[in-house]
Amino acid sequence: MRKVTDVASPIIADVKLVPGAIIIGTIGKSKLIDQLINGGKLNVDAIKNKWESFVIQTVGDNLVIAGSDKRGTIYGIYDASEKIGVSPWYYWADAPVKKSTNLYVKAGRYLQESPKVKYRGIFINDESPSFSGWSNKHFGGINSKVYTHIFELLLRLKANYLWPAMWGNAFNEDDPMSPVLADEYGIVMGTSHHEPMMRSQKEYTKRKDEIGPWDYVTNAENLKKFWTEGLERNKNYDNIITMSMRGDGDVAMGKGDDAENIKTLKQVVADQREIIRKVYGKDPAEVPQLWAIFTEVQRYYDAGMNVPDDVTLLFCDNNWGYIRRTAPVNELKRKGGMGLYYHIDMNGGPWNDRWINTTTVPKLHEQFSLAYKSGIDRIWIVNVGDLKPKEMPIDFIMRYAWNPDAISADQTSDYMTGWATGIFGKEHAAEIAELVSRYSKYNLMRKPEVQDLNIFSFVNYHEAERVQKQWQDLTAKAEALEKKIPKEALDAYYQLVLYPVKASAGVAEIYLAAGRNNLYAKQGRVSANEYANRARELFELDKKLSARYNDFIAGGKWKNMMSDVHLGYQKWSMPKENSLPPLNEVTPLASPSLGVAVEGSTDAWPGTEGKAELPQFDVLDKQRYYIDIFNRGKGQLKFTAKANKPWIRLNATKGTIETEQRIYVDINWEKAPEGRGGGLIEINQNNTKVPVVINTLKKATPAGKTDYYGGFSGEFSIPANKFSLKTADDNAEWIVLPGLGRAEACMGIYPTTAQSSTPEKAPRLEYQIFLPESGSTTVLLGILPTQDINPGRGLRIAVSIDNGDPVILDARKGYHDEFKEYTAENLNRSKNLKPLPDFGHNYALISRGKPRRTEVFDNQRWLDAALDVKKAGIHTLKIYMIDPEVVLERIIVNPNDKYPSYLGAPERN
User: Fold this and answer.
1) How confident is the model at residue 248 (pLDDT cuts 50, 70, 90)?
2) Taken in order 455, 383, 207, 271, is the CA torsion positive or negative?
3) To 10 degrees, the CA torsion angle through 406, 411, 412, 418?
4) How far from each other are the two terminal CA atoms of the chain, in whole angstroms?
5) Is pLDDT at 632 greater than 70 in this prediction?
6) What local confidence, expressed as pLDDT, does residue 831 receive?
7) In whole angstroms, how far apart are CA 321 and each of 88, 267, 410?
8) For residue 727, what are the β-bridge partners?
9) What is the distance, to the nearest Å, from the Cα of residue 589 to the centroid of all Cα atoms in its chain?
């Protein structure tokens, strides 16, 4: 009230009603609330004895906030607080408070039912150097002063659960007030997946000499004593106890023998349950516990290991945001239920993903909906790293967890606009939502820490230029909008919008500039030096952007928070300092010297065997290709360009350059010969001549008005959502998933709980395509890298052409086995795992084995099928649902490795 109105409201602790007051209390705990209930003025039947629910109701001239329990009451308070203008992010993102001189409430009753996910929380992790540096600077450490801000944020987001920072930190021992205040705030505490029995790793490491090795086979008694002391200390607080154990320091136990580990862990769990019985003085089934099925532990579960029925099974993602399992059917009636541990921040294998937000709301919706619909709804705990700058995905996950049914896949854009409105107001909310959606989408396409010089093509489909333009356009919009943002919202705008947009764009463009520098240096272009300088300029800009965040925003409030190293990764772990990728300097020759490069090739002439050759021109696509003419030396270079056929058109036939000039080539199709044609363009400088081969194809194009994809010149791309027809069955249908994937949308199945199908009955997508030749046609299906979420059943999709027999594809093809689940030994031990399919042909789109190229890093998996085409012409490509969790992003037909790219040929139809 004070923040909104600048007038502090007096707080009265009394059992008598005060006219015109806001009455707050918990049912059965507040005499005031119970008095209203008993007097028939307040009906709480719908929430009484429920979990974390509340009612807000006008009673006469009083506004009443009544909770079913402690947190329900708190949520009611903060719900009202948000509605009058205080964002949950007022502290953590400096969201401005909406000022009002008068506040009104509409007479009536508002009921908040219990959350659909019982425990909803975050894990502060990977907190050095940023979060720890910030905490040390402003609070003297990661202590209760920091945690009270986190507790308040959680409650304002209607969350209730926390795994505290543990990189050299001990929540319960570093500051004994931390657990006391957590309990006072009503926050349920836990410990991470490898810290059992409420003991942090630091508590063990500082006592290691006293306790002995972290080895239950040789040191069980000392470990049991250590665990018992932890539970005794925390037993009076609200906790969820992490069970079992892993190796010391977030690694697998022992020597890696799964059978021995399973045998040991069964005894560990039995002994831990006995400790719980003794410490709590009651049946362990009455004490909340979880078993985290993380990394190697998934192998143990698949091999048959389990824990008592009252323990929550905490399934996990692949560390990069794709859940490894949906709820097993045989666990749906489990007393302890099932939960999910999910990463929007990762420090470790397969690679770090820490520095900036790289997660989109459509992706979060798709994955958390998949988990929830299958029955994973007891616990959602999210690794958020330093908390900042992951504000937006935290906000979405916590709000979505309350009621996943309230936000459908086609409402994610509405959520983003609502999120922006809640922080910045309505005027610029749509623009801000778009900026945040776009930067996170582009980051997900290629995350900053796994950038490389050779991801995007510099010579095919103008791919690198298109990516660069996306980022530059986004940056321009963000900078322009900053000028319109009110002064009180500028700090929030920088943190949530401008910094992540500009800094992400800067990293992307550094690698694009460095990649072009390396290519041009190989070709001998003097302009390579300009791209080296551009990379250096952007590197300095990156420093300035971070400095503004750390030193100036909100008066230095976030000093050290943006300290993660994010440039120069050579392996999964964080480098010691930011560094530029390799850059090359070109020393010009003493005199002007001709160089020629053509679209579709990384070579340059003179100096390369064979002739330069442009990709094929055809009458259907009417392509325009470029020739780069450049100077390898000093001084001015004069050139001429001449075609030997009158139907070959050039936009320039001569020029004088010091560095380079791009000329464009197209065809006058009215004059071009029928069938296949050919010609030459000769680039000439003095006595140096470079011929460029031209190939054309002029044939009759498909008749009729049918819209179709395809053409005469090989590879073409179809966005999944650009189907010509979709059919459903009685149980499922293909739906558009807006904003998901690299482009406009993906296609997924609704509901994801549908039964598996067969091609003759399955929901189907159809696409009209033109194929100029008969014979074998290769189709690549680009799908999201869905994990082996139901290994006993499989993960499949089918494809056919026309009335041909559908080809059923194992959608795990290309699966990256980060956790070594599919070894012969594990397959023999497991009750449900099936061998992975062969990888198949390593198309350029896949680039398996090249640096930083896996389906995980690409956020895309490619499935290939060879389909027989009876004759040239228009055909119907059909995609069939077999299993409902496969999400289709894109289709590439006839991939052409001669012209490799990361994204595939752009859409054309």
Assistant:
1) confident
2) negative
3) -80
4) 58
5) yes
6) 86
7) 25, 32, 20
8) 764
9) 47
